[in-house]
Write a structure and sequence with these properties.
The protein has 358 residues and is of the alpha/beta class. The protein is 34% helix and 20% strand. It is built from 15 helices and 10 strands. A 10-stranded mixed β-sheet has the order 1-2-3-4-5-6-7-8-9-10. Helix 9 (140-148) links the parallel strand 3 and strand 4. It is globular. The termini are far apart. Residues 281-290 have low confidence and may be disordered.
C-alpha cells in the first residue's frame, strides 16, 4: 500500500492498519531484526507516516532491549529513550536480551542504557528475559541479578525468563518480586537448576499467580523442580493451611515439560486441588474472577536422549485423571515415542493408556 493512498484515510484507520502490521511475534525466538525496529522503519517512510507513528503510542508498546554491544551503548540508550517517549504512558511489554559475558565483564558500560530502561519499569506489564545465544560461560545468574536489582515493576502481570541452564538466582528474584509487589498473573521459567528448592520460595511471594509454566532441562546434573515435594505444597491437608494461607490460591493453569520426578498420585492430588478451587462456591472469594473457565494442566514428559523412559500414569492414578477429563477439566499428559520412519511422535498418555477407555 503506497504512502499516498494511505493519506486518503482517516488517521484512526491508518493507526489501526499500522497496529495490525506491527503485531509482534508470539515467541521471542521468532523476532527478526526488522521486528525489533519496525515502528522506526514505518516512521521513516514519509512525513505523514512519521506523524501517525509518533502520535500513536500503542505502536510503541512492545520494546526489545539488547545488552550485547558495548560500543553502541550510547546509540541504544538514545533510541530506547525515543521509543519510550513515543509510547507516552501506555503499558509496556519488554523483551530483554542479556549477553551474559559482556554484562559480567563490562557491566559498568551498560549503566546509561540500564538507567533509561529502569525509568519505564513502573509501566511494564510483561517482562521476558532471554540470554544471548552466544553466551555460554555460566554468568547468566549474575547478569540477571544485575538487571533485576536495578528495577521495580509494580504493574507487572507476566514474567518469563530463560535462565540459560544455570542456577536459579533465588535471592534476586525474591527481592525483585517483593520490592515490586506486583499483581503477577503469569510466570514462565525455562532451563534452570533448582538448587535448594529456591523455586518454591520465589513462588511464595507471588500469591496472585494464575498461570505457571516450567520448562526444565533434561540434563542429569540439574536439580529437579516439579517433584513430590513441590506438588505437596498445594496440599492443605498436609500443610495445615486454610484457604487464605494456601500456596498459590489463584493458580488456574499449569504446564510442565521435563523429566518425570514425581509420583502420579501426587499430580492427581494437585489436579484435584485446582478442580476444588474451580468448583468452590464462595461468592466473597477473590478467586471468583479466575473461575470462569476450567483449570488446565499440560504435562509433557521428556527423558534423556540415550535412555528410554517409562512414564505411563500408574494404574491407581488413572481413574482420577479420567474422572477429571469427564468433569470438564482440561488435562493432557504426553510424551514422545520414536517410531521408525515417522521419527519422534507425541503420545497422549491418558487416551492411549492400556487401561484407558477413552
Amino acid at each position: 500500500m503506497s504512502p499516498n493512498l494511505l493519506d486518503r484515510f482517516p488517521v484512526e484507520i491508518v493507526s489501526h492498519i499500522f497496529n495490525l502490521c506491527l503485531e509482534p511475534p508470539e515467541a521471542c525466538d521468532d523476532w527478526t531484526p526488522a521486528d525489533k525496529v519496525a515502528p522506526f522503519v514505518l516512521s521513516s517512510v514519509c512525513r505523514s507516516w512519521r506523524s501517525v507513528t509518533q502520535n500513536t503510542p500503542q505502536l510503541w508498546n512492545t520494546i526489545f532491549i539488547s545488552f550485547n554491544s558495548p560500543e553502541k551503548v550510547a546509540l541504544h540508550a538514545q533510541l530506547t529513550r525515543e521509543w519510550l517517549a513515543r509510547s507516552k504512558q501506555v503499558p509496556l511489554s519488554v523483551i530483554v536480551e542479556l549477553d551474559t559475558d559482556l554484562f559480567y565483564l563490562k557491566n559498568n558500560i551498560f549503566i546509561p542504557l540500564l538507567d533509561v530502561v529502569a525509568q519505564s519499569a513502573a509501566r511494564w506489564v510483561s517482562l521476558d528475559i532471554r540470554p544471548d545465544i552466544a553466551s555460554h560461560l555460566g554468568k547468566t545468574p549474575l547478569a540477571l541479578s544485575l538487571f533485576l536489582d536495578s528495577i521495580m515493576s509494580p504493574s507487572l502481570q507476566r514474567f518469563s525468563c530463560d535462565f540459560g541452564d544455570w542456577e536459579l538466582p533465588t535471592g534476586s528474584l525474591l527481592s525483585f518480586f517483593t520490592r515490586s509487589s506486583c499483581p503477577l498473573r503469569e510466570f514462565r521459567a525455562e532451563r534452570f537448576d533448582n538448587r535448594n528448592n529456591g523455586f518454591i520460595r520465589v513462588l511464595s511471594v507471588v500469591p496472585s499467580l494464575q498461570q505457571l509454566a516450567v520448562i526444565h532441562p533434561t540434563v542429569e546434573y540439574h536439580r529437579p523442580t516439579i517433584t513430590d515435594q513441590f506438588l505437596s505444597t498445594f496440599d492443605s491437608k498436609k500443610t495445615g493451611a486454610n484457604k487464605s494461607g494456601a500456596f498459590l490460591p489463584c493458580l488456574r493453569t499449569f504446564a510442565y515439560e521435563g523429566r518425570l520426578n514425581f509420583a502420579w498420585d501426587r499430580l492427581a492430588n494437585f489436579a484435584d486441588h485446582l478442580q476444588s478451587n474451580w468448583t468452590a462456591n464462595d461468592s466473597s472469594s477473590k478467586l471468583q474472577s479466575t473461575m470462569t473457565t476450567p483449570p488446565s494442566i499440560r504435562i509433557h514428559i521428556a527423558g534423556f536422549l540415550n535412555k528410554p523412559i517409562s512414564c505411563w500414569p500408574s494404574d491407581d492414578s488413572l481413574p482420577s485423571f479420567l474422572h477429571l477429563l469427564d468433569s470438564g477439566f482440561d488435562i493432557k499428559i504426553s510424551s514422545a515415542e520414536f517410531r521408525g520412519d515417522k521419527g519422534w511422535v507425541e503420545v497422549d498418555l491418558l487416551k492411549s493408556h492400556p487401561k484407558s477407555s477413552c
